[in-house]
Amino acid sequence: MPCRLVVMRHGERIDDLFPDWIRKSTSSGSYQAFDLNMRFFEPLVLPKLKRPFKYYEGDTIISEMGFVLAEMVGRGLLVNKSIPDIIYTSPALRCVQTAHSALKAMSKENEIKIRIEPALFEFTDLHPGQPKFATPEEFFEANFNIDIDYVPITTMDDIWKRNETVEMYSKRVQNLLQKLAKTHEWSKRSDGALILVVGHASTVDLAIGAFREPPRTLLARELINQGAKFPYCCTAIIDRTDDGRWLYNENALPPITYMNFSSKINRDFAMRERLT
Amino acid sequence: MPCRLVVMRHGERIDDLFPDWIRKSTSSGSYQAFDLNMRFFEPLVLPKLKRPFKYYEGDTIISEMGFVLAEMVGRGLLVNKSIPDIIYTSPALRCVQTAHSALKAMSKENEIKIRIEPALFEFTDLHPGQPKFATPEEFFEANFNIDIDYVPITTMDDIWKRNETVEMYSKRVQNLLQKLAKTHEWSKRSDGALILVVGHASTVDLAIGAFREPPRTLLARELINQGAKFPYCCTAIIDRTDDGRWLYNENALPPITYMNFSSKINRDFAMRERLT
C-alpha cells in the first residue's frame, strides 16, 4: 500500500496571464515570446507534435514562472526524501508540463514514469467544448517520460458524454484517489510507495476532502475563485498512519513564499515632471 | 561613447520576506532553508568568505525567485541583442548576486566583468549603520567575476562620513550615471558600449530622472514605497540617440508578467466541515 499521496496543482497558465497569447505570439507564423515570463528558446512547447496552434486554445502551456515553481516543489520533495515512485497526471498539457518540471528538478525525468489519467481532468463544465489533448504516445514522442502501457480507468470521451454535475465530478476524482491509495505500486521504500498526483485547483481541494473524517466533496458554489484558494503549484500531502487511516499532513513540505509584484515600473511616477 | 545604459534593481530580498531569516535558518549552527523560495543546496551563499552570519544582517541575500527573475532579465537582454560589455554594481551582496545571475542566464559569467562601485549604494539614511560589505577581492575569491583592477570613484567609508541628504544621494548616483554615459568602454559593437548597472529601487528612478529633459532628482517624500514603484529586477533602458542625447526607451525589453500569488493553501477553506 502507498504511504504518501502528494497532490499538486499545475503551474501558472499562460492563457490566464495573456488571454490572447496564441494570436499575439504566433502572428509571424512561428511562435515568438512577447513577455519574459514565456519560454523563449523553443519553437513551441511540443515541437514533435506539430500541433496546429489552435489546439492550444483549450489546452494552454504554462509560463516560465510555472516551470520554476514546479521545480521548486520538485526540489522540496527531494530534500524532504519524498521522491515519488510514480506520477499520475491530468491529460491537460499544463499538468504534464508541471509533472515533467518537478521530475527535472530531481534529475529523475528519465527514471520516474508519468501516467496520464483522464479521470484527473477538471470539471468538464468549465470548458466550452472538449479540448484536443495530446495522446500518451504523442507526449512520449515529445520526450515526456510517459508510461504508455498504463490503462487509465476512463477516457476523456466517456467523461464528456456523461454531462457531469459537480457532484459527479467530485466522485470521479475522489474515487480515483481512493483507488490510488489502495493500489500496489512498486517502491524501493520499505514503508510503501509514494504517489505524486498532478491536477487542477479542485483536485487538491478534493484530495484534502476525500481523506477528511468525515469526507467531504465539492459544491458548485465552491468552485468560484478556487484558483485563488488553491494557487498554482500548491501541494497537499496526505499520509497513511500506522493504523491505516489517511491524514492530510499540513506541514510536510516547506511553503513557497514570495512578494506579490510585477516587474513593471510605475510609469506615471517615473515620468513625473519636476517644476524648476 | 556607450550607446545604451541598462539600469536594473536587484532581485527579491530574503529579509523582506523573512525579517528573522538569519536566526531561523542558522539556529542549528549551519544554514538550513525553511522555505522553498530559499536556496537549498548551498552551505551559505558566500562559502569561501566564511563570514559571520551577523554580517548578513545589513547585507541580505536574494531569494530563489530573485535569482530566477534576474535570469529572466539576462535572457531578455540576450534575445534583445543587448549583452553588456561591462557591469557596474552596488557593493550590496543582493546586487552582486543579481548581476551574476543575469550573466549566468547569458552564459557570460566567466567573460563579462563586474565592477563594484560604492557610489551605487542606496541612500545611507535607510540603514541604521554602515553594512559590512564583502570586498571586491572577497567576491572574486567566492567565484564572482569581479574586475579587481577597477578603481571606484568613491569608498563606502567616505560616503558614510558625509551624512548625506536625499539631494546629496541623488547627485551621487546621477553624477556616476552621467560619467558612465561618457566613459569610453571597450566593445565589440560598432555603435558603442553597452553598460549594465545593478543597483536599488532608487537607482532605477534616478537613472530615468537623470536623462529626462529637464532632468529631475529624488525628493525625500518620494522614497516612501519606492520598492513598490520600482519592483525587484525592474529594468530601465536608456539609449543614446544619433544626435548624442540620451532617452529612456520604455519598450526596449519585454516585461515580466505573472500572477500575484503565494503557494499557500487557504487553510480555512480547505479544512471546512461538511454537515452530513
From TrEMBL, chains A, B:
GO terms for molecular function: phosphatase activity. It comes from the Eukaryota. Pfam families: His_Phos_1. SUPFAM superfamilies: Phosphoglycerate mutase-like (SSF53254). InterPro entries: His_Pase_superF_clade-1, His_PPase_superfam, Phosphatase_SH3-domain. PANTHER family: PHOSPHOGLYCERATE MUTASE FAMILY PROTEIN, UBIQUITIN-ASSOCIATED AND SH3 DOMAIN-CONTAINING BA-RELATED. This is Phosphoglycerate mutase family protein.
